[in-house]
Each structure stands twice: as C-alpha cells, then as structure tokens.
Amino acid sequence: MATKPVFLIGFMGSGKTTWGKKLANALERPFVDLDAVLVQRVGMSIPEYFKAFGEEQFRILESEVLREQINQNTIVSTGGGTPCYFDNMDWILEHGISLYLDHSVKSLWNRLNASDVNKRPALKGFTGEQLHQFIDEKLTERLPYYQRAHITVDQVNTSIQELANIVR
Ligand code: S3P
C-alpha cells in the first residue's frame, strides 16, 4: 500500500501542532507544520504575508504546500483554513488520513482568548465577546469541511496512544 500522510485539521487554537508533534513521536514518523513550511518559504511571518500579499495569495500558496505532502510518511498539522479552500478537503481525503480535532466554541474561545490574537491575522484582532461571536460564525462556516474528516477526535477523552493505534 502507498504511504499516506496523516492530516490534523481543525479550527485555530485546537492544538493541531501540539498533537501533531506528539502523534509523530508516538508513530516515529516525521512531523510537518504547513504554516511553518510556508513561513520558511516566503521568509516572513503569516501576519506580514497577509499584509503584503493578502489572504487570497496566502490560500493559493497554502494549497500548493499542502499538495507537496503527496505520498509522504508525514504527520501534518494544517492551518485552520486549509481544508476550507479550493478542493483541498477532497485532496486530503483522497491522499491521506484526516483527523479533525473537535472543540466547542466555548473551548476554542478559552484557548484563543488567552493567546496573542495578532499572531493569527484571520482573527482580525478580535478579543472578548467579539472574538466569541467571530469563532461562532467562522466555525459554523467551516464545520461542513472539518466534519468530512475520516476521524473526529474528542481530545478530552482520547489519548495520543489511542490515536496512534487508530492511524497506525
Ligand atoms: C488560519 C489559521 C492559521 C494560519 C493562518 C490562517 C485560518 O493556522 O494558517 O493564520 O484561516 O484559520 P492555525 O490554525 O495553526 O492557527
């Protein structure tokens, strides 16, 4: 059977990078963070890139970086928007195993409100009540993509080891 990458998908702040690293460790497979690859390639941070070239250009590049993972042995943490643009989710389903890190709006709000929102231009600098409303609307828009994932992960009740056994 051909090698298939594992894609972690989910909203900003859902823990894709942290869990991706842990899962890669448990499976002894290489870890790739799509945002980090992109940052390295363009030589600037994501907020800088959004400002200089706009979100549309970012989505094109993100989609290209995603497709480089074809036939790789990698555990890949995607960006929160990656599966929601072009036919990226179709591509993910066809070429990899996808894990959706599921969180409620409240849980995402708790996690994101405690973070530096300026590091994520897609959050548009919102905090507090405005951030809650933004997450609510954006998650509703993105759920139809996330919910197509092969496996939905409830992080509270799932251990890394269990997850490793599922995708192994
Ligand atoms: C984005 C999420 C970010 C990053 C970019 C856009 C989004 O990744 O790709 O800022 O639209 O949800 P994280 O989900 O790792 O924060």
TrEMBL record:
SUPFAM superfamilies: P-loop containing nucleoside triphosphate hydrolases
Annotated residues for binding of ATP: 13-18, 120
Main location: cytoplasm
Pathways per UniProt: Metabolic intermediate biosynthesis; chorismate biosynthesis; chorismate from D-erythrose 4-phosphate and phosphoenolpyruvate: step 5/7
Pfam families noted in UniProt: SKI (PF01202)
Transmembrane segments: none
Leading EC class: transferase
Biological role stated in the UniProt entry: Catalyzes the specific phosphorylation of the 3-hydroxyl group of shikimic acid using ATP as a cosubstrate.
Quaternary structure annotation from Swiss-Prot or TrEMBL: Monomer.
The protein, known as: Shikimate kinase
